[in-house]
Here is the input.
Amino acid sequence: MDIKVGDYVTRISHKHDMIFRVIGIEDDTCYLKGANVRLYADSLIEDLVKVDFKESDDKEIVQRIKETNNLDRDDYFYLPGKILHIDGDSEYLDRCLKYYNNVNLMAMGICEDERDISKNILNYLEEYNPNILVITGHDAYYKKKGGIDDINNYKNSANFVNAVKEARKFEKSHDKLIIIAGACQSNYEELIKAGANFASSPKRINIHALDPAIIASRMSLSDINKDIDLKDIIGSTKYGKEGMGGIITKGTMYMGYPR
Here is the structure.
């Protein structure tokens, strides 16, 4: 089969479990990027099958988030929390920023290599002073290296943990700065211990490209005076409690009167 860069494919050996876009070809090997999942992979051309796939505009996700916030706009006005989204992948960052815009939230985006986030994060926090911080990109758990408890067995979990720790130097309170950290298969427990409010991935699974942004938007639109419904917010992500987890905290949205 004639496969070229830009084609969408699935892998026969993985029972066509997910869709990838071909981002490079070298000899008989194709380099792949998840269409919806934050995942890089490679595969022999002979293991790939071309599929029809239309790039999602995420309308269903946007509509679902809007429906979770039935706000009384006749008498009151609302000030959602401000989001700073730092992402190791420019394409996924653009998709997340488009999503924030579609749900009418203020969000700033920075594309930064996962290894460099911790070095620059204090400057970003001082400049933008967000209510919500997203730290994401790409990660992976390398099972062949050893157990899930050893952070050295992950591609970028240590980098995310370091970034969270640096962010907590800026603001120690989990209520004043909501931190959402991690990517596919990240070390969930270490991210929570480092100071994240929400993190991936409790079951070390791949997460949807928008999962961190979904959590951020829900927190942005949650009442600052009330504890969140943790199970409901986690349940609004693609893979629920297997992909994302977190702690009960308060929202970031102020309500005012009169409109």
Q: What stands out?
A: Residues 198 and 246 are 4 Å apart (CA to CA). The chain has seven helices and 13 strands. Residues 157-170 form the longest helix (14 residues). The first strand starts at residue 8 and ends at 11.
